[in-house]
Design a protein that fits this description.
Blueprint: H1 8-21, E1 29-35, E2 50-52, E3 74-75, E4 78-79, H2 80-88, E5 93-96, E6 120-121, E7 128-129, H3 135-145, E8 148-153, H4 160-171, H5 177-184, E9 195-198, H6 211-223, E10 234-241, H7 245-255, E11 261-268, H8 285-312, E12 319-327, H9 346-361, E13 366-372, E14 382-385, E15 388-391, H10 393-401, E16 408-409, E17 412-415, E18 418-421, E19 424-427, E20 429-435, E21 441-447, E22 454-459, E23 468-473, E24 493-494, E25 498-501, E26 504-509, E27 513-519
Parallel strand pairs: 1-22, 2-5, 2-13, 5-8, 8-9, 9-10, 10-11, 11-12, 12-13
Antiparallel strand pairs: 1-17, 3-4, 6-7, 14-15, 16-20, 18-19, 20-21, 21-27, 22-26, 23-24, 23-27, 25-26
Helix pairs in contact: 4-5, 6-7, 7-8, 8-9, 9-10
Bound molecules: alpha-L-arabinofuranose.
Alpha-L-arabinofuranose (AHR) is lined by residues 54, 98-100, 200-201, 324, 372-373, 378.
Length: 520
């Protein structure tokens, strides 16, 4: 439902009409939000809006890379539509080549003339990898869209020597033979490498290691990460799965002094059953609720891992990076299981919004996050089908929230009715806020309740303004999706249901919606 009337009263009347037409119970729910602009917090690192792109399914091939000779419009082999869409949301950093794929990847397979590169089995995900997309293509792609680079190193089947040679190939200047080899392959100046992940999921697909063993392996590898002069690298230790704080504890205690960042992976499975994760499109309110509960769990996970890190690093020098997160549902009918191709609905959009809110609230410790994944895989920004492309509801949340990249976090207090379904209950209204470099305060509000609108009274001590502009994202149903034939069903619209008078912002927040306001 949409309330598209300019004035506040008009919004309320429109809501009453629309809501009663949909059989909603009432619109009289009230919520209070205080944005403490007078108590600014840390900077929201842009890298929290990072992406993850693995060599699997159609994530890279078809989704990003089509090759220079493709009939699909491309820039040096990269899909132009995808490049433009990613630039528009200011992707700050990309993690590549995996995931599980990374720990069986030989970087030498993906350099040099493309027609000479070997075809390898994709041992992690099935099928073959043509290696047409390798180091050269990844680093150029990141440069093309203006993103930082995050390479996940092969620890599971690789060696420290292979790692240090790969880093040298990418970053060395001067006359080293690896720098010369890179030049012979067409790249004169070194690339900018920003993050190096020492393995991926080392407790699982990365080598089934125990935490003590991995901590020592990490120390060994970290010793041989040679950063180029004046271009420091962030070394990321492979961190825990979900709530395994014991992993974080051991790795921090043994290797903490050599760690710049440690990762955390957490996926939401709406049914809680990995064998039947639940449909991305055919679900009822019960799985709406469970997916949102899953997203909200991130707050507790970060708090627990961060508390363990505090034992060894009370000044928070070491970052916690959530370098895989998102909703993992059953693949779409017809897609191969290992391709991890799933649709993306309004539910994914709201899940993403409340997760980003949580990252903001932990900005003192969480300094990068990478949603899984960028194109055609899991909770993707973008889906493609041959020459066609569709932007997902999750993409639009990243678009609306890009104003928070680099903003100063402003703490929020929220009082709102719970949203209940059966015996489950979650806070109905969520909010986050930040002040950008130009002084504009941005506030995001999310209403998880699919039935009730909320009248939100927002006060911002320390901000004297009167102009409010905004955008909203909502849809007719909880499972509304964008398709190749109907790409605009879930898309941000201008939001007119807010006023800013005498220091009070009053907002009619529609059911199941995300609203981002700019306050001047
Ligand atoms: O994102 C898909 C897979 O999930 C990654 O390869 C792995 O790291 C995780 O288990």
């Amino acid at each position: 439902m949409k309330a598209k009337v300019g004035a506040w009263r008009g919004c309320l009347v429109a809501l009453l009409v629309l809501v009663s037409g949909h059989g909603y119970a009432d619109v009289t729910q009230e919520a209070q939000v205080i944005v403490h602009a007078d108590r600014p917090g840390p900077v929201i690192h842009p890298e929290i809006y990072g992406q993850f792109a693995e060599q699997l399914g159609r994530g890279i091939y078809g989704g990003i890379w089509v090759g220079e000779n493709s009939s699909i419009p491309n820039i040096r082999g990269y899909r132009k539509d995808v490049v433009d869409a990613l630039k528009a949301i200011k992707v700050p950093v990309i993690r590549w080549p995996g995931g599980c794929f990374a720990d069986q990847y030989d970087w030498r397979d993906g350099i040099g003339p493309r027609d000479k590169r070997p075809v390898r089995m994709n041992a992690s995900w099935g099928g073959e990898d043509s290696n047409q997309f390798g180091t050269q293509e990844f680093m150029d792609f990141a440069e093309l869209i203006g993103a930082k680079t995050y390479i996940s190193i092969n620890v599971g089947t690789g060696t420290p020597r292979e790692m240090s040679q790969w880093i040298e190939y990418m970053t060395a200047d001067g006359r080293s033979s690896l720098a010369q080899e890179r030049r012979a392959n067409g790249r004169d100046k070194p690339w900018k490498l920003d993050y190096v992940g020492i393995g991926n999921e080392m407790w699982g697909c990365g080598g089934s290691m125990r935490s003590q063993f991995y901590a020592d392996v990490y120390r060994q590898y970290a010793t041989f990460v040679h950063a180029p002069r004046n271009a420091p690298l962030v070394r990321v230790a492979s961190g825990a799965n979900a709530d395994d704080v014991g992993w974080t504890d051991t790795v921090m205690s043994i290797a903490g002094s050599q760690i710049d960042a440690i990762s955390l992976h957490n996926y939401t499975i709406p049914t809680g059953n990995w064998l039947h994760k639940g449909s991305a499109t055919q679900f009822g309110e019960s799985e709406w609720m469970s997916a949102l509960q899953g997203a909200l769990r991130m707050d507790d996970l970060i708090a627990k891992h961060s508390a363990v890190m505090d034992k060894y690093d009370p000044k928070k020098r070491v970052a916690l990076v959530v370098d895989e997160w998102g909703n993992w549902m059953d693949q779409e009918p017809g897609a191969s299981e290992a391709a991890l191709y799933q649709q993306n609905s309004l539910r994914d959009a709201l899940s993403a919004a409340i997760t980003l809110d949580i990252f903001h609230a932990h900005a003192d410790r969480v300094r990068m996050a990478n949603i899984a994944q960028m194109v055609n895989v899991l909770q993707a920004m973008i889906l493609t089908d041959q020459s066609r492309m569709v932007l997902t509801p999750t993409y639009y949340v990243f678009d609306m929230y890009k104003v928070f990249q680099g903003a100063t976090y402003l703490p929020v207090d929220i009082q709102a009715p719970a949203y209940r379904y059966g015996t489950a209950s979650v806070p109905g209204v969520h909010a986050t806020a930040g002040r950008d470099a130009a002084g504009v305060v941005h506030v995001a509000l999310v209403n998880l309740d699919p039935h009730h609108a909320d009248t939100v009274r927002l006060t911002i001590p320390g901000v004297k303004g009167s102009a409010v502009h905004g955008r909203e994202l909502t849809a007719p149903a909880i499972n509304t999706i964008n398709t190749f034939d109907h790409p605009d069903r879930v898309k941000p619209e201008p939001f007119d249901c807010a006023t800013f008078k005498h220091g009070l912002v009053t907002v009619v927040l529609p059911p199941k919606s995300v609203v981002v306001l700019d306050l001047h």
